[in-house]
Amino acid sequence: MRNALMDPGRIGMTLLAAWIAQEQLRHLLALARTGADHERVGHLRWKFLTWCADSEVPEVRQLAVTLGCWRPETSAFIATGRSNATSESVNRMIKLCARNTHGFRNPANQRLRARCGTTRRARGHLAPLNFVDPL
Question: Taking Cα atoms as reference points, which of 13, 33, 31 lies closest to residue 21?
Fold first, then answer.
């Protein structure tokens, strides 16, 4: 893959730099819940940040700056393996349902639709108010 990305020139080199940064970040985050010592975590973090800082791609440099600002959060994730990804995904689904149901006149149906979209267990068991089965 590296050789295929080097052939197209600047665009390929940009993609290669971003891909390598992504892989180094994946290696760093893969240490979550493995009990890796601080030296190993620090080495992989340094390797990732150094690669991004030396990159000529502005987006890759900005990624390093952003993750530098999130250092306490990433350290907590690596130590515990816990993140707020679940709550963020539920919030995203609620906002998506709200956008899709724009114009509903019944707020109860809108809330029920958001609940159906965010609760797997409830899917198929909840029906909107005044729902009449066509059969």
Answer: 13
